[in-house]
Amino acid sequence: MSERILDFLRRRQTDGPCVVVDLDIVRDNYAAFANALPDTSVYYAIKANPAPEVLNLLHELGSSFDCASVGEIEMVLATGAAASRISYGNTIKKERDIARAYALGVRLFAVDCVEEVEKIARVATGSRVFCRVLCDGIGAEWPLSRKFGCDPAMAPDVLERAHCLGLEAYGVSFHVGSQQANLWAWDLALGMAADVFNEMSRRGIELKMVNMGGGFPTRYLKDVPGVPSYGEAIFHALTKHFGNRLPITIVEPGRGMVGNAGMIEAEVVLISRKSSDDELRWVYLDIGKFHGLAETMDEAIRYPIRTPKDGDETAPCILAGPTCDSVDVMYEKTPYELPVSLSIGDKVLIEACGAYTTTYSTVGFNGFAPLASHVI
Question: What is the per-residue pLDDT across 272-281, written as a single tens digit (0 to 9) for each?
């Protein structure tokens, strides 16, 4: 728990829920990735938290950036970062957005099908493309779906088509799933990448780069390995599958870069029961799924919650948000242990909220203001 954040909250004058991000923690996280993977470029996935202060700091530290839209590309360029430090990593792009990114200087694009390659060839001549392949996501708390990536056996055809259309078939990418606790998840994925490299070489095309994606976790309620452990496991897998001919490598930490740097302060709005013999309390906060806690969907991410009554007797409760929508319930399948003495009006602290909170907050559902954000 960041003392700097706690001090900020003690002095805060405004009301309502807010997230506070400590840049000192972001700086430490960047150093951890740089030290654990010294020969790998860091491309921060800015969708996790695009606060200008975060982007400016990472630009100063030398980070590159993974962007999902033209809007994100423009955010990065506003820091003064060169377009050469940007990857347009979304595999689903409008042709006019590709053209706009190209006009802004971006030359690195993700693809996962021939149709996307053809769009890039039409409006972004000579660009580098890398093909994303599917991973099973085993070991991840938030496995990614089949929406992005192609079967590894299809990747050589996609990349060969890029080559034939005058693009540079640059490499392969994958994502092992968000909040990936399995150190060896990258081993299987790098094995698939090496197979694509070998097949492309057989076809006379030499790939150069492997984008090893994100998935690096933040500690919520469970302990997770540290970045040095991931670095060691990844280096072992790289040398296992590529030997002495290591490719250029990049990683795209998002959650792992900013997750533990943020904390939300929220307020208990109501505590009630649904019947006189109901054993479970319902605890309603002034923040829910629509205002920053979307990752509680299916109770995938269970945030640590601190209260002013910690140390008192606890009992399980159902935790919900304030909106008039029945899905605005964070924890019900597995109720959350909170102090019995918790009262209406108590402030609670939700830890590890630096990633995917402001970006998942609605602009005004039910008239509630978007989640306020402060960066210190």
Answer: 999 988 889 9
